[in-house]
């Protein structure tokens, strides 16, 4: 095709195209739900700590594996995401 194709994802080492917008939104949030991540890659790995400590938001982690950042969360659910969301959707 004679030009470089890039996937519509942020690859390791890439800058976040919407980083400033993400930070702005983070400071406006009441609840931060983090799902399916190792929380190893910066700057996103710092978002839970910012939300909890600086913003005072309620923080929720849903992950099959522990991340080592559980102290930054008010609620930790060690579940598969699909099962967690299914459980939420059944609550009416």
List its salient traits:
92 residues; alpha/beta; Rossmann fold; 3 helices; transferase; NAD+ binding; EC 2.3.1.286; NAD-dep_sirtuin_deacylases
Arithmetic mean pLDDT: 87
Q: Judging by the overall fold, what is the CATH architecture?
A: 3-Layer(aba) Sandwich
Could you name the CATH homologous superfamily? TPP-binding domain
Q: Percent helix among the residues?
A: 25-40%
The global form is globular
DSSP strand (E) fraction? 5-15%
Q: State the end-to-end distance.
A: 50 Å
**Topology order in helix (H) and strand (E) letters:** HEHEEH
Total helical elements: 3
The stretches of 5 or more residues where confidence is low (pLDDT under 50) are none
Give the number of DSSP strands.
3
The count of domains is 1
Describe this protein's structure.
Residues 1-92 form the Deacetylase sirtuin-type domain. The protein is α/β, with parallel strands linked by helices and 92 residues long. Strands 1-2-3 form a three-stranded parallel beta sheet. It contains three helices and three strands, in the order αβαββα. It has one domain: 3-Layer(aba) Sandwich (Rossmann fold).
Detail the topology: elements first, then pairings:
Elements: H1 19-26, E1 31-35, H2 47-55, E2 58-62, E3 75-77, H3 81-89
Parallel strand pairs: 1-2, 2-3
Briefly, what is this?
By secondary structure, the chain is an alpha/beta fold. It has helices at 19-26, 47-55, 81-89; strands at 31-35, 58-62, 75-77.
